[in-house]
Amino acid sequence: MAARISDLHIAREDTLPTPQALHEELPCSDEQAGHVAASRDAVRRILRGEDDRLLVIAGPCSVHEPASAVEYAGRLRELAVRHEDALLLVMRVYFEKPRTRMGWKGLIYDPGLDDTGDIGEGLRAARRLLLECARIGLPAASEILDLITPQYYAELLSWGAIGARTVESPLHRQMASALSAPLGFKNTTGGGVEVAIDAIHVAGQSHRFPSISMQGQAIVVTTTGNADAHLVLRGGAGGPNYDAASVAKAAAALERAGLPPRLLVDCSHGNSAKDWRRQPLVAADLARQVAAGSRSIAGVLLESHLVEGRQDIVDGRKGLVYGQSVTDGCIGWDSTVSVIGELADAVRRRRA
Predict the structure, then answer these.
(1) Cβ contacts of residue 268 below 8 Å, gap of 6+?
(2) What's residue 297's pLDDT?
(3) Torsions phi, psi of 310, nearest 5?
(4) Could you say which of 126, 256, 292, 324 would form a disulfide bridge with 307 (CB–CB 3.0 to 4.6 Å)?
(5) Which residues in 304-338 are b (16+ Cβ under 10 Å) and which e?
(6) β-bridge mates for residue 127, sequence order
(7) Contact predicate 253/206, CB 8 Å
(8) DSSP 8-state code for residue 60
(9) For residue 90, which phi and psi values (nearest 5 degrees)?
(10) pLDDT tens digit at each of 352 positions of the chain
(11) 54-81 burial by CB neighbour count: b if 16+ within 10 A, else e?
(12) H/E element holding 300?
């Protein structure tokens, strides 16, 4: 009898719908597609310095509860209208979470928060939420972590991110060259920006690599490169990098590399020392830099939800506080309103 040499560690196989089937089940209307296209163009103009508004990407660390995410989106949309003269507000709608060891991996991977791993339903939940954001006219952003799942929803994103743990990955860099939305590369977890700058260069070039088609067929794609890749400062093991000196140093590194000296700054993660309470302090420092005339800061990222802080998943969805993060701690809604107002006022002061 021949020895078994394949699938030795496969415990289960589940069938997923093809990307095309999910698109047909949950279609994007012409109006929704028009909103996504227009909001991407707005993001590009800010990144290129053609629009002096500030890009602000705000929302939960990760979406675990579609209902509270929809409520948050409605509130953020009202803020977006209020401050549209100074800010372009985009909702952070993150579905996949890179884990250092293990933990809940995000709505796509475990929508029931119970380890059943119904990825098909997770993809449906993700697409429904992005369609709702487009329906109400709110741009959406997400981190691109998996190499296959973007086929199911990425056409609905106005901005994307490659995280600190995958910024050095050749596979993510070449995938980034194919994505249609502007894309931010975060500095590494150690805090260095050179790896992210290399990634920006690589993502801007043409690549040829295996992928899957909308029909689920294995194919080889040839890309044109993503001209709108840029740097995101998120701090790291070496400390925060949101202060004026760090921003100037990063902008100078971009210029030396032949890239526009424009970047985004994350108020969370290493810049807040992983303490959500510090995010408003980081944002206040960035607002002062903008008001003083900084043109290097094109945008700001905030981890924000309806209820401040975080909570643990103990028994699935049972007992969870509505609108509170189950991953990193977030600032609450009242603080979000205050921080966004402060950033808007900083843009107005810079103009004056």
Answers:
(1) 61, 234, 274, 276, 279, 301, 302, 303, 328
(2) 98
(3) -150, 170
(4) 324
(5) bbbbbebeebeeeeeebeebbbbbbbbbbbebbbe
(6) none
(7) no
(8) -
(9) -130, 135
(10) 788 889 889 988 989 999 999 999 999 999 999 999 999 999 999 999 999 999 999 999 999 999 999 999 999 999 999 999 999 999 999 998 776 666 788 999 999 999 888 999 999 999 999 999 999 999 999 999 999 999 999 999 999 999 999 999 999 999 999 999 999 999 999 999 999 999 999 999 999 999 999 999 999 999 999 999 999 999 999 899 999 999 999 999 999 999 999 999 999 999 999 999 999 999 999 999 999 999 999 999 999 999 999 999 988 889 999 999 999 999 999 999 999 999 999 999 999 9
(11) bbbbbbbbbbbbeebbeebbeebbebbe
(12) strand 297-303
Is residue 186 within 8 Å of residue 217, measured between CB atoms?
no
Whole-number Å distance between alpha carbons of 294 and 350: 8
Q: Long-range pairs for 314-323 at CB < 8 Å and ≥24 separation? A: 316/112, 316/113, 316/114, 317/65, 317/112, 317/113, 317/114, 320/65, 322/65, 322/67, 322/68, 323/65, 323/68, 323/71, 323/72
Nearest-CA neighbor of 102 among 93, 94, 90, 110? 110
Q: Is 339 exposed, middle or buried (0-12, 13-18, 19+ CB in 10 A)?
A: buried
Domains in the chain (CATH in brackets) are: 19-351 (3.20.20.70)
Type of residue found at 57: I
The enclosing H or E element of 56 equals strand 54-59
How far, in Å, CA of 293 to CA of 316, rounded? 48
Would you state the pLDDT for residue 349? 98
The closest of 275, 79, 299 to 184, measured between CA atoms, is 299
The token pair that represents 165 in the structure block:
């743990």
> Residue 101's pLDDT is what?
65
Residues 6+ apart with CB under 8 A from 2: none
